[in-house]
Amino acid sequence: MYEDFIIKSIVLLGITAFVYVNKFLDGNALILSLAIGAIVLFIGGWGYFILLLIFLIVGSFMAKLVENTRSALRTWYNVLANGFWPALSIAILPFSPDKITPAIFYLGSLNAMFSDTVSTEVGIYLGDKPRLITSPKKIVDKGLSGGVTIDGLLGGFLAAYSFALISSVLINFSWNSVFINSIWLSGFISSVSDSLLGSLLQVKYRCSVCGKTVEYNLHCGSETTYLNGFKWINNHTVNFLSSLVGGLLAVLFFNSFNMLYN
Ligand SMILES: [Zn+2]
Fold first, then answer.
1. How far is the CA of 148 from the centre of ligand 1 (A)?
2. What residues have CB less than 8 Å from 159, skipping those under 6 apart?
3. Å from CA of 220 to ligand 1 middle
4. Which band of pLDDT confidence, cut at 50, 70 and 90, is reported for residue 141?
5. Average pLDDT, integer, range 51-61
6. In the chain, what are the domain boundaries?
7. Residues 108, 246 contacting (CB under 8 angstroms)
8. How many angstroms is it from 206 CA to the middle of ligand 1?
9. How far apart are alpha carbons 242 and 194 in whole angstroms?
10. What whole-number distance in Å separates Cα of residue 106 and Cα of residue 78?
């Protein structure tokens, strides 16, 4: 027990030092990530922690590969948007009489963020000009919320499946099709819902200098004009909501598939 605590502390501090040296996160984001990592490792255990680590490593690697504003240095609100629901579901695990539901919720909410990250980066790196998910005839700039490409969608689909397979080994210790399909489908559908929410709800502005639709109120060095969407809904709010959708869908699918097949 005591040795276990020491080993986990060393691993957490080692990773924190590595992230700090490589500047993957800014100061506040690093502290928040350490807190989330500690909750997941000390309460959840190695399996949950390795999945979180896979998300961080793949996300950071792809962000380095594709230099763009959406995946630049991650800030604390970015970490909170991605990590809130996974951390909460692990935090309630010891108090929950039912151990499966929080675990499934964790996997669904984390897979939503994992698939969305892979989908976004693959779309930017490989894809053609993205089309708006809510009106596919409309071509938008790469990286704009709500824009999707075929490559990006395929990337998200495969990422969600890979995550489900790895979860099955690390958490379920077996190949169970109900388990795998619930995590896979919830991850993929919520990564698509991320684009939908981004397109429908997220605030958009028009730059009066270059004429582009943008997500920020400053572009080309001047103030942009409001176009549509809710002003309090930004990219982080959308991620926060999609992660919640991922967790809820995973629990819904897991229970429905179990009723259908058993
Ligand atoms: Zn501009």
1. 21
2. 58, 114, 115, 117, 118, 119, 187, 191
3. 4
4. confident
5. 90
6. 2-261
7. yes
8. 8
9. 5
10. 18
When the pLDDT of each residue in the chain is averaged and rounded to a whole number, the result is: 90
pLDDT beyond 90 at 13: yes
Q: Residue 69's pLDDT is what?
A: 47
CA of residue 123 to ligand 1 center, whole Å: 22
Strand partners, 204: 228
- Total residue count of the chain as it appears in this document: 262
What are residue 4's phi and psi, to 5 degrees? -60, -45
| Cα–ligand 1 centroid distance for 142 (angstroms) | 14
What's the gap in Å between 20 CA and the centre of ligand 1?
A: 33
CA of 205 to the centre of ligand 1 (A): 10
CA of 212 from ligand 1 middle (Å) equals: 6
Residue 89: closest CA among 124, 48, 139, 147:
48
The answer, yes or no, to whether residue 70 has pLDDT greater than 60, is no
Buried b (16+ CB within 10 A) or exposed e, 113-140: bbbbbbbbbbbbeebeebbbbeeeeeeb
Q: Which of 178-192, 215-229, 233-247 has the lowest mean pLDDT?
A: 215-229
pLDDT for the residue 128:
80
Ligand 1 midpoint to CA 211 (Å): 6
Inform me whether the pLDDT recorded for 71 exceeds 80: no
CA of 200 to the centre of ligand 1 (A): 22
Sign of CA dihedral 10, 60, 146, 187: negative
**What is the Å distance from ligand 1's center to 191 Cα?**
28
CA distances from 55 to 50, 128, 214, 217 (A): 9, 25, 27, 30
Centre of ligand 1 from the C-alpha of residue 19, in Å: 33
